[in-house]
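Researcher: Let's do a round of design. I'm pasting the structure tokens now; please hold your answer until I've finished.
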């Protein structure tokens, strides 16, 4: 994190507030309430310019949580929520040195410790003894523009949400994706593959599951930068159409298709899945990382459109991230933790994960027969690493 980001102390509360010593005591108390006793932690905490460090249970901690100023714990936990934790990092109230994956997993333990209103209130009373800090800085976040006034998952608002995430510069995505720009989990057959190799294996895994053969008409809903349809056309002889509502994706995908000499068998259309119209039914349809944008309320329409455009006996592969929450966390009823709020605000506006059983039920109700279900959780974790 940049050390140039400034903070302004606006106010403080509590009889003992106002000294570094009292702030350090209150911060350590808040840390125990949120993270557990020091000897139970896998990480260390370093306290701003006081130089104090709590080492945790190990002499070689997985990471160090750096509190940038006396009000850092207040910024982290007033009120305690997933969004608050993330914004404290974004706005430089905290820094993380070491394993970021291990740091992300700590949030699960925090949520468990704050599973009762009593625990939440005790933590909030503690952090109120710390100074209130106003972070000097701004974090860019997606904007829906005028479409924010449109109904959620209307075509206009969906288009704005997709553009806000994907049309931020193809060069940005090239910084961390493989050379084909596959924006989903790769497939690690041995675990020793490079990202490029594992993403190619993922494309091949999908094509094998769909049993694509020469001449098959393939539709890719939410085709991204066109990597899958190019692979299906070049390696399996498919006649492939990809659709996306991101102009940036469509432009680059069409350029890559032309450069690869695949224009006769592969094309991309700037098109919402609800606007495909009356086209010849497809032998195979695939959707990778698209259902997360559809929204639970629109799943009947989504599956219905896929079913309508698929030939009888055809195959549909839907690949998406799901969640396993069957009941709202107790804090959810208090509108505090708000799981998914960070992603909604900064990453995927209007995105929504649903449970796998909900997807399966909707597919069955639409008329599909489920032939295979596979979890790629471990592959996703390795891809992110």
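Researcher: That's everything. Go ahead.
Model: Designed sequence:
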């Amino acid at each position: 994190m940049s050390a140039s980001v400034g903070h302004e102390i606006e106010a403080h509360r509590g009889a003992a507030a106002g000294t570094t010593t009292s702030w350090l005591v209150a911060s350590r108390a808040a840390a125990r309430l949120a993270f557990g006793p020091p000897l139970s932690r896998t990480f260390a905490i370093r306290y701003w310019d006081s130089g104090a460090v709590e080492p945790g249970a190990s002499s070689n901690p997985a990471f160090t949580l750096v509190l940038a100023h006396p009000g850092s714990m207040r910024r982290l936990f007033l009120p305690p929520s997933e969004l608050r934790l993330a914004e404290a990092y974004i706005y430089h109230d905290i820094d993380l040195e070491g394993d970021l994956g291990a740091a992300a997993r700590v949030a699960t333990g925090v949520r468990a410790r704050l599973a009762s209103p009593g625990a939440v209130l005790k933590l909030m009373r503690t952090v109120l003894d710390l100074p209130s800090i106003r972070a000097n800085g701004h974090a860019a976040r997606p904007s829906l523009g005028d479409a924010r006034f449109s109904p959620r998952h209307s075509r206009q608002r969906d288009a704005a949400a997709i553009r806000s995430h994907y049309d931020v510069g193809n060069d940005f995505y090239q910084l961390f994706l493989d050379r084909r720009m596959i924006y989903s989990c790769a497939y690690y057959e041995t675990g020793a593959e490079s990202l490029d190799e594992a993403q190619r294996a993922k494309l091949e895994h999908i094509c094998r599951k769909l049993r694509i053969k020469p001449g098959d008409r393939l539709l890719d809903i939410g085709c991204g930068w066109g990597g899958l349809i190019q692979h299906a056309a070049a390696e399996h002889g498919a006649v492939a159409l990809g659709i996306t509502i991101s102009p940036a994706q469509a432009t680059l995908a069409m350029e890559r298709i032309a450069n690869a000499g695949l224009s006769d068998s592969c094309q991309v259309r700037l098109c919402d899945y609800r606007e495909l119209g009356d086209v010849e039914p497809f032998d195979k349809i695939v959707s990778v990382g698209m259902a997360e944008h559809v929204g639970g309320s629109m799943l009947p329409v989504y599956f219905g459109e896929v079913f309508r455009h698929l030939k009888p006996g055809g195959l549909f592969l839907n690949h998406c991230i799901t969640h396993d929450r069957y009941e709202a966390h107790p804090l959810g009823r208090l509108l505090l933790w708000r799981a998914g709020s960070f992603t909604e605000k900064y990453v995927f506006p209007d995105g929504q994960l649903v449970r796998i059983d909900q997807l399966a039920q909707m597919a069955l109700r639409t008329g599909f027969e489920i032939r295979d279900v596979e979890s790629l959780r471990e592959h996703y974790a390795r891809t992110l690493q």
